[in-house]
Amino acid sequence: MIKNIADYLEITEKKFGSKVAYTDEVRKITFTQLKAAALRIASGLLDCVGIGTPVLVYMNKSVEVIEAFLGVAYTGGFYVPIDIQMPYERVKLIIDTLGAKCLLTRRCDELPEEVQRECNVCYIEDFLANDTVRTQEIQARQRRSIDADPVYAIFTSGSTGVPKGVLVSHRSVINFTEWWCETFAFDENEVFANQTPFYFDASVKDIYATLRCGATMHIVPRKLFSLPKKLVQFLIDKKITCIDWVPSALCMIVNFRALDKEKPETLKKVMFLGEVMPTKQFNMWRRAMPQVKFANLYGPTEATGDCTYYKIERQFEDTEPIPIGYACNNTEVLLLDGDRLVTEPETVGEICVRGCSLAHGYFNNPEKTREAFVRNPLQPNYYERIYRTGDLAKYNQYGEIVFLARKDSQIKHMGHRIELGEIETALGAVPGVRRGCCLYEHKSQKIVAIYEGDLEPKNLTEQLKEKLPSYMLPNRYEVLAQMPINLNGKIDRTLLKRQYIKEN
What we know:
This protein has 504 residues and is an alpha/beta fold. It has 3 domains: 5-168, Rossmann fold (3-Layer(aba) Sandwich), CATH 3.40.50.980; 220-404, ANL, N-terminal domain (Rossmann fold), CATH 3.40.50.12780; 414-500, GMP Synthetase, Chain A, domain 3 (2-Layer Sandwich). 32% of the residues lie in helices and 27% in strands. It contains 16 helices and 27 strands. The strands form 6 sheets. A 9-stranded mixed beta sheet has the order 2-1-10-9-11-12-13-14-15. Strands 16, 17, 18, 20, 21 and 22 form a 6-stranded antiparallel beta sheet that branches. β16 and β17 (340-341) form a beta hairpin. The longest helix is centred in the N-terminal third of the chain and has 15 residues, at 31-45.
């Protein structure tokens, strides 16, 4: 019985020990080397980390981070990946929330002095240089651990300005990984190209599918995501078979026609997640790579990986949104209008999730946990938790779930209730628009369309009139040479709001 993600390493190392598991720009590591490194790290951490104890992992994205994750798992503690570009004030908030005493880093990652004063700092180089492995103590920890113990905490932004630590169990990750590998037929021949940062929960898919199947994962250098032709060449050189990326990265490739000449012929599976994939750019991918199987994935951090998926088999018009599909195995997705279950097509409801994929909640934040993880109103006979995502969706005519927008992006404009996501879909389908997003300026009551492309606003309005009613047409346009992208690889809406929306 697998009850700890480190069990995957134990099993896979026996089968594929000499096979390359993970690579970055300077290192590659086999499964046998990975196990040896993880056990050394665990041995070094045992005295300061107990079961259910947090360990901050403060490192630049690298093979060493994966060694650290697994080393922490062997101790029974849970890891907390930290973005090293994060300002100290935010790191301090995370440390205070966790009450963290232990921080694992590398000497080359230049830990700020303020952080050094907050925690017991451990250097991974020191652990890796020590040949002593405390095997019996590690095994004792593993025997005491259960699959309900936390494996990681991912910190997301909080509405109060204090980040929320989403605490996820081994059981949730194992449940998701088993479904993920089975549904998309991953095996030891799979070669992943990892795009998402390790402090972003989407990276869990690449990391643990590799560990579960004995596959290989290449960490893509971040600089390549602004160099589309070199990015495609990376996929070719590494013989990548599967990518699971945010749409902004995929859109960049086709917007700059990086697939026109050379194509990554080994690529067989392309998944996207984290934001809405513009159908126009998806169709460009499909025409360029007809042999590829595509899937749209959806899921909040609080539901571990994904809670819905959609294997794209039928054709879609550029103006038609791609569904998020159906619930993943051992998960149920409910659309609720208040406490009423929505089943009829075209009726909007909030996406709510139940099942063992749910996170424990927000670390040391019972108030926010109670707000989001609530009793299932459809189950009066016993207490069952569901997670309210704050996302709106509907069923289409085929019974597929279609994501609409965040609840807070539903606006009231000129007496009409409008989903900004619907305007974005129409905007993105217009020829000459590469990427776009819509914001609402409540003070002036204006819909603001921000886009990257060659089309003049006047011409864009004329084309949108053919797709949208007059009350949904943007009142103002902002044309950008390039859409800003945040560290997670998504459109940076926070920055755009700060620059273009006046609320005071």
